[in-house]
Predict the structure of Enoyl-CoA hydratase, mitochondrial.
Amino acid sequence: MSFLCRNAALLLKSSRAAPALLSASRLYSSGGQYEYILVEKRGDKNNVGFIQLNRPKALNALCDGLMKELGQALDAFEADKDVGAVVITGSERAFAAGADIKEMQNRTFQECYGGNFLAHWNRVSTVRKPVIAAVNGFALGGGCELAMMCDIIYAGEKAQFGQPEILLGTIPGAGGTQRLTRAVGKSLAMEMVLTGDRINAQEAKQSAYELTLAEGNRLEKRLFHSTFATDDRKEGMTAFVEKRKANFQDQ
Ligand code: CAA
């Protein structure tokens, strides 16, 4: 995965300009209509699989339905011999503002651990064709992790990357602690994960750093699940939903 600071607006532009094409494209693949994503083939040779996350009111928060549809669209492009690469993008305001906090708010440790919560997100990183994230706006939490699962990130002027889970009383659960460390180095990754502070495209590019990916993802998933056993995780997400400041008790 590498950060490239380019004008993601170029990739986004035609999706704003061609609503008719996009609505027709929802029917791409045998699976029928998608609710949370727009899908089409683009390029002179129609060989680029284009997926746009489409929950604008929720800043493309990655609800379960969206991630399932994303997996289906990736499966379809993987199987399509005419497709050479895939682009995943959002809007100018948000690539994705993270996993859906409203969906997670009342989850228990047992549900997370027993159901291996978020395990299916990994599909993005196992696609054998090159996957490009075209990022503008918020790429936070699971949104940052989704971008980092892609092979290349093209980041626009308004891109903001961050892992703000600590502000919700939890930790990144989809590879953030591992991939961010490899993308920007341990020091900046720790600062971002421990403070929730964001970086822009320039800062991400300047900090680009590569290490090999190891078993850490598995450990991270277990630690992420275990935050669902704490009162503070519940309080953090409830406070977000109720639009108030979290009252953490350190338990
Ligand atoms: N989940 C669910 N809904 C979300 C969301 C999320 N991650 N992020 C934003 N939204 C919703 C808001 O609730 C709001 O909806 P309503 O109008 O219905 O209340 C709408 O999107 C717009 O959001 P804001 O009004 O908050 O917009 P803003 O411009 O004031 O702030 C923001 C934008 C800074 C991105 C802010 O929305 C925010 O902090 N979002 C949460 C970011 C976050 O914590 N992400 C990590 C999630 S946990 C995770 O991802 C775990 C993991 O590792 C997989």
Remarks:
- The first helix runs from residue 9 to 17.
- The longest strand covers residues 37-42.
- Residues 94 and 138 are 4 Å apart (CA to CA).
- The chain has two domains: 37-210, 212-250.
